[in-house]
Every structure is written in C-alpha cells, then in structure tokens.
Design goal:
Elements (H helix, E strand, L loop, with lengths): L9 H7 L23 E3 L2 E2 L12 H13 L4 E5 L2 H12 L5 E5 L4 H10 L6 E5 L4 H7 L4 E7 L11 H10 L3 E5 L4 H4 L9 E5 L13 E5 L2 H14 L5 H11 L2 H20 L4 E5 L9 H7 L6 E6 L3 H10 L4 E2 L9 E3 L20 E5 L5 H12 L1
Parallel strand pairs: 4-5, 4-6, 6-7, 7-8, 12-13
Antiparallel strand pairs: 1-2, 3-9, 8-9, 10-11, 11-14, 13-14
The structure holds pyridoxal-5'-phosphate (PLP).
Keywords: Pyridoxal phosphate
GO molecular function: cystathionine gamma-lyase activity; cystathionine gamma-synthase activity; pyridoxal phosphate binding
InterPro entries: Cys/Met-Metab_PyrdxlP-dep_enz, Cys_met_metab_PP, PyrdxlP-dep_Trfase, PyrdxlP-dep_Trfase_major, PyrdxlP-dep_Trfase_small
C-alpha cells in the first residue's frame, strides 16, 4: 500500500493519492474498471498488478483504498460493500466463540443489531458501557474481552469518548480499540494516531458525500489484520462494485471543503437551537456546555455536521418538526451535501427500542448540509413554530 509522504496536506492526498493519471491513456481520473475478470499471461500467472478476479481486487477499488489509507494516515485500507459489511468483517476477524466485547451505549443501531442479534448466536458476548466514563469501561473489560467498540461522536446523541484514554484502557486489558469514524471523517479526526487499532467507516456518509452510493471501509496499520480482513472479504465477498468505488473516490476529493462548510453551518444551527424556546436540549460537541467539549476540542479539528436536539414539547412535537421542514429532507442516513432531518426513535434507531441503547422519544437528528445557512435556519424556525 502506498504510504504518502507526511508533507502532503490532507486536501492534496484526497485528490492525488492512488490517483495518478492512467499510464496507457493519460486519463486524469481513475477509470471505472467495470470488469469481473482479468486476462492472465499463462495458467496460474497474472499480469502486472496481480489482478485476477474483481471479488479479490479491482483497480478502481485499489485507488479508493490507497486514498482512504492516506487520509487516515494509515498503512492499509480495505473497501467494503457497506459500512455494516466493514463492521461485520472486523467483528468476525477479531472475535471467536467465548470472546467478549465492550460496546458504547450509543452506537449506531445497526451495529448493535449485528452484535446483539447475529454475533451472540456465534458465542460472542458483549457489555454496554458509557465510553465517556472510563471507570465504567474499566469495570466492563473482562479477561476474555478482545474489542472495545467506540463511536466518537456517537450516533445520534453526539457523545464524545477520549480515544487516547480508551486505547490505553483497551490495550491494558489485552483488547483492541475499534473506532467508527463515520461522523468525524479523517478530516476532523484520525483515531489511529490517537492510539486506536482499527477504524471503520460507513463511506455512504461524508466520505461519499452525495447520498448516491453505499459503501464501507476498514483502516488499520497492522499488516496481520489487513491480511486477515483481506482473506475474509475475499472468502465472503462483501466488496463494492467498481462504479461504487469510483463514486466514493470522487466524493473523497472534496471532503475537506465540504467538511468545513458542514461545520460552519452546524455550528450556527446548534447555537440558534440552544436559545430556541421549543428546544430543551441540544447535542453538539462544539457547544461549550457539551460535556465532551474539551475532549472533542483536543482530538478533533472541528466538531462536525451532525446536530441533535430534544423538542421541549415531547415526542409528538418532535415528529411534527421532522415532518414539517421544507429544505431539510425527512430521510435516514447523513453526511450528504443536502440537509436531512429524522426522528431516531422511530427511524434509524428503531432497532434499539427497549434496549440499553434506547434514545429519547423527543429527539430529532439533523444532518446539516452545505446549503445557505440562512435558508436552513429559516426552514428549521418555520418547522419549530
Ligand atoms: C455511525 C455509523 N456506522 C455505521 C453505519 C452503517 O453503514 P452502512 O449504512 O453504510 O452499512 C452507519 C449508518 O447509518 C452509521 O451511521
């Protein structure tokens, strides 16, 4: 895997790493290698580049993986067909029957569902802990704990965990730290540099950035883990197609400028919501009163584009706001250029109802896009009444 010189800035790596002009045609943009198979020089002999079958490897996917690794400051990245496929690969590579993992109390509902409804059938046990409470994490770690699974910021409550401290705790207990970096993106936070062992992404979100492709990635510095993940991905086949890899790579190129604008708009909206009479609580790590603000400021460049809030008048009022905006589209997912609004309790996080991860019924989640901030504020104020 190409490891870019450290002197290249983030924006430059996003546009150039793994993306040299095509040597045969000069095409400036990496082509969509829409092929399942590759001619071989002889029986058992592959040509330059070692491509033989696109489940195993594909040049468009390789370009995406080199760029992703460079952005996370990592040795390796592997692209998957979705964020859940990436998480699944990490869980099945690192855990065996009898193993245990510690899970943040506020992880993405789909991650919880995979662990609670699928992994437990294969003899894996888990505990849920508030990852911002290091004593709680220390208590949750057992001799058979192999993973600590962290999101920071979390989905949907924007909780912040101290990644460096968590990595130390996990390592002291003989476990690895996984960070789902979907909300922050490598532009705002690079968990491997903070001590994490593995980063996972739903590239569906900010990395793709345009709500037009589903994908995932795993990033690590470990050669051994990379080999194990590569083996599992080839064995089970959870790969993205060439066009999906290309769309994600195209999105990556503008990640830095998009994230700056997402952050600008989200900061303005969080501040406006914080003084709105219909809002009883705002969850945004950029606000000084957020309990994780100091930690977020230490480990993040800025605070991201996701903002959640509680409606002061309860669940029905929250549902009405979610259905009442005009520019904010009522939809699941996040991280695209367009603003989205949703009700986690009934939508993205319905699968955690009744569990320790249940979210407040009056919660509304915003994925703040890169439109004109004044228009977004007017839209929200209109829906809040
Ligand atoms: C934080 C986080 N991790 C993982 C996922 C799963 O990703 P995907 O939908 O690409 O499978 C999501 C999806 O919403 C997410 O928000």
């Amino acid at each position: 895997m190409v490891h870019d010189p450290a002197h290249l800035g983030f924006e430059t790596r996003a546009i150039h790493t793994g993306q040299k002009p095509d040597p045969r045609t000069g095409a400036v943009i990496v082509p969509i290698y829409q092929t399942s198979t590759y001619a071989q020089d002889g029986v058992g002999g592959t040509r330059e580049g070692d491509y033989e079958y696109s489940r195993t490897a594909n040049p468009t996917r390789t370009a995406l993986e080199e760029a992703l690794a460079a952005l996370e400051g990592a040795r390796h990245a592997l692209a998957f067909g979705s964020g859940m496929a990436a998480s699944d690969a990490v869980l099945r590579t690192t855990l065996r029957p009898g193993d245990h993992l510690v899970l943040g109390n506020d992880v993405y509902g789909g991650t919880f569902r995979l662990i609670d409804k699928v992994l437990t059938h294969w003899g894996v046990d888990y505990s849920v802990a508030h990852l911002s409470d290091l004593d709680e994490v220390r208590t949750a770690i057992r001799p058979e704990t192999k993973l600590v699974w962290c999101e920071s910021p979390t989905n949907p409550l924007l909780g912040i965990a101290d990644i460096t401290a968590l990595a130390e705790l996990a390592h002291a207990g003989g476990a690895r730290l996984v960070v789902d970096n979907t909300f922050a993106t490598p532009y705002l936070q690079t968990p491997l540099e903070l001590g994490a062992d593995i980063v996972v992404h739903s590239t569906t979100k900010y990395l793709g950035g345009h709500s037009d492709v589903v994908g995932g990635a795993v990033v690590t510095d470990s050669d051994e883990l990379r080999e194990q993940l590569f083996f599992l991905r080839n064995a089970s086949g959870a790969v993205p197609g060439a066009f999906d890899a290309w769309l994600t790579l195209r999105g990556l190129k503008t990640l830095a400028v998009r994230m700056e604008r997402h952050c600008d708009n989200a900061e303005l909206i969080a501040e406006a919501l914080a003084v709105h009479p219909k809002v009883s609580r705002v969850y945004y790590p950029g606000l000084a009163e957020h309990p994780g603000h100091a930690t977020a400021a230490k480990q993040m460049r800025r605070f991201g584009g996701m903002v959640s809030f509680n409606h002061a008048d309860g669940e029905q009022a929250a549902l009405e706001v979610a259905a009442g905006t005009r520019l904010f589209v009522l939809a699941e997912s996040l991280g695209g250029v367009e603003s989205l609004i949703e009700h986690p309790g009934r939508m993205t996080h319905a699968s955690v109802a009744g569990s320790l991860l249940q979210v407040p019924a009056e919660l509304v989640r915003l994925s703040v896009g890169i439109e004109n901030a004044r228009d977004l504020l007017a839209d929200l104020n209109g829906a809040l009444g």
